[in-house]
Amino acid sequence: MGKSDFLSPKAIANRIKSKGLQKLRWYCQMCQKQCRDENGFKCHCMSESHQRQLLLASENPQQFLNYFSEEFRNDFLELLRRRFGTKRVHNNIVYNEYISHREHIHMNATQWETLTDFTKWLGREGLCKVDETPKGWYIQYIDRDPETIRRQQEQERKKKQDLDDEEKTAKFIEQQVRRGLEGKELEAPVYTELNRENEEEKVAFNLNKGASTSVAASSKTSVLGPSALKAAEGAVKRKESAHGSGQSKEKKKKSALDEIMELEEEKKRISRTDYWLQPEIVVKIITKKLGEKYHKKKAVVKEVIDKYTAVVKMIDSGDKLKLDQTHLETVIPAPGKKVMVLNGGYRGNEGILESINEKKFSATIIIDSGPLKGRRVEGIQYEDISKLA
Q1: What is the spatial distance between Cα 167 and Cα 151, in angstroms, rounded to a whole number?
Q2: Half-sphere exposure of 263 (CA within 13 A, CB side)
Q3: CB atoms within 10 A of CB 376
């Protein structure tokens, strides 16, 4: 074998040595060349190509320094964002993972002399949250991506809306309880004095337990005067009114509970989501990006991924495709066929299509599953139902 042969032991050894990371002091950032030892680095510095690079850098050294600094910063932050997200992590862990890549920008070619200086600079610029501990400096990436900020705002808005709904329900229940308590105060019994119209008339009570009811009744009617009878009638009326008020209060409680249940049902019925895909429904492909072979063709949803993406199987050819819901639309069958509700309060229920209103682009269905089986739902939109496979 020749000295410069590709498969010679020396050539193989040189390739093995050049695979791993080498010492930083023998690396030339301007030429992007790594030398294995001091002699190789000295020879490189005396080479003509290195001298030309030095002449170019001497014309505008600040430009090269800014370029390498910007590249180092972007690569470091990209690794921090992709690998660790917004977690708090030691800066040396991120740096060690960054320099494990052979073609990385070396820190001695940037405006920062040490990793600590770079970490402090990230904190001053507001790119990361930095804090110093006895174990060293820790950094935490601040995600300022517009999409992430929008998603966080949507989550906060949804949380606030849920809290508002809970507060409305709590206020409604409190109002019903207050109304019930007010009714109880108004219906409190009123006591009056027993006044005798005729002072000479005697009032007698028969307390004989052995006497029959008929005898007691006759004795009472014969012995009791008209004023006592009036008082007894008033007591009976008060008892009946109290009994009636108890029944009305019970009705009030029932009506309040019914109102709460109706409110919850109404809220569920009008609640809508921006995703509608469900397994085992028939859909139509409306995108033209897949060509005429699949355009306006029907398919069956086999799997739903992340709520917005579906794996569909073509009905005619059997091909499987992965499509977003924006590239699909629902299919309305003939009356009498089975459909599934895809949005709104009846979402997930199966039903029978009863009729179609072409002017209003709506349909009438009869729920065929769940606790609402047999319920007739009118005015449901085309995009909220689809044919079942």
Answers
A1: 24
A2: 14
A3: 10
Q: State how far the Cα of 386 lies from the Cα of 325, in Å rounded to an integer.
A: 13
316-338 burial string, b = 16+ CB within 10 Å, else e? eeeeeeebebebbebbbbeeeee
**For 271, what's the count of Cα atoms within 13 Å in the CB-facing half-sphere?**
13
The rounded radius of gyration (Å) of the Cα atoms in the chain is 43
Distance, in Å, from the CA atom of 238 to the CA atom of 244, rounded to the nearest integer, reads 10
Q: How far apart are the first and last CA of the chain?
A: 71
Q: Cα–Cα distance between 340 and 146 in angstroms, integer?
A: 36
Q: Which whole number is the average pLDDT over 308-330?
A: 90
Q: What tokens appear for 180 in the block?
A: 């019930």
pLDDT in tens, 265-295: 666 666 778 888 999 999 999 988 888 888 8
Question: Helices 91-99 and 61-79 meet at what angle, rounded to 10?
Answer: 110
Average pLDDT, the chain: 78
- Residue in the structure block whose two tokens are 């027993």: 194
Most confident of 126-140, 203-217, 244-258: 126-140
Contact of 206 with 223, CB cutoff 8 Å: yes
CB 374 within 8 A of CB 366: yes
Can you tell me the distance from the alpha carbon of 377 to that of 268, in angstroms, rounded to the nearest whole number?
14
Cα dist from 341 to 55, 279, 328, 362, 371, whole Å? 73, 12, 16, 13, 15
- Tell me the C-alpha distance between 68 and 281, whole Å: 55
Q: Distance (Å, rounded) from C-alpha 316 to C-alpha 296?
A: 12
The per-residue pLDDT for range 9-42, each reduced to its tens digit, is 887 776 666 555 566 667 777 777 777 777 888 8
Among residues 330, 300, 329, the alpha carbon closest in space to that of 315 is found at: 300
Query: How is 77-95 classified by DSSP, letter by letter?
Result: HHHIIIIITT-EEEHHHHH
Q: How far apart are CA 331 and CA 285, in angstroms?
A: 10
What tokens were used for 33? Answer: 């060349």
d(CA 211, CA 204): 15
In the numeric block, the tokens 């009976």 are attached to 236
Q: Which two tokens stand for residue 296?
A: 């306006």
Per-residue burial over 111-128, b if 16 or more Cβ lie within 10 Å, else e, is bbeebeebbebbbeeebb
- % of the chain residues with pLDDT over 70: 76
